Amino acid sequence: MKLKQKLQSVLLIDDDEVTNYIHGIIIKQTDCVENVVAVESGFEALEYLQTEVEGKYPNPDIIFLDINMPGMNGWEFLKAYENLPLACRAKFVFIMMTTNLSKFDKEAAKELTSIDAYKNKPMNEEMLHSLIAEYFPHHL
């Protein structure tokens, strides 16, 4: 998929370093994103989102969020995220990623307006292309 304009950045939030690495490779292979940032906890993600660089917050275009993480799971991260200043929350598409096929989690994700999609791991190029086509058609 060749884009007219690449997305600026994607944030991967997953406590599994290998999953972040593999998803990062898949995203880079599609050549559709300028910058991929991976963190291993909700706490790290909140810190990243609130850190200004050259007067700007990161504002990733897409956040891929794992549900089951120690310390702060995906649901707890979302509650904390909703309390961030608006400047830290702009421009996001949230994709919940899980290996858990829990009907409860899937239904809970549908009820949250901040969650745009609920996908099973692992990510693949077809999934990424589909998400970009759906949420960023002006980049095609």
What report would you give on this structure?
Helix 1 links the parallel strand 1 (7-13) and strand 2. The model has no long low-confidence stretch (mean pLDDT 91). The chain has 140 residues and is an alpha/beta fold. It has helices spanning 17-30, 42-49, 74-81, 86-89, 103-111, 125-135; strands at 7-13, 33-39, 62-66, 93-98, 117-120. The longest helix has 14 residues, at 17-30. It is built from six helices and five strands; from the N terminus they run βαβαβααβαβα. The chain has a five-stranded parallel beta sheet, with helices on both faces.
Arithmetic mean pLDDT: 91
Count of distinct strands: 5
Write the CATH homologous superfamily.
Answer: Response regulator
User: Strand order within the widest sheet?
Assistant: 2-1-3-4-5
Q: What is the highest CATH level, the class?
A: Alpha Beta
Q: Total number of helical segments?
A: 6
Radius of gyration: 14 Å
Q: Residue ranges: pLDDT <50 for 5 or more in a row?
A: none
Termini separation: 8 Å
- Fraction in beta strands: 15-25%
Structural class: alpha/beta
CATH topology name, in short, is Rossmann fold
What's the main sheet like? 5 strands, parallel
Shape: globular
Number of domain units: 1
Series of H and E elements: EHEHEHHEHEH
How much helical structure, as a percent, in the residues? Answer: 25-40%
Which CATH architecture?
3-Layer(aba) Sandwich
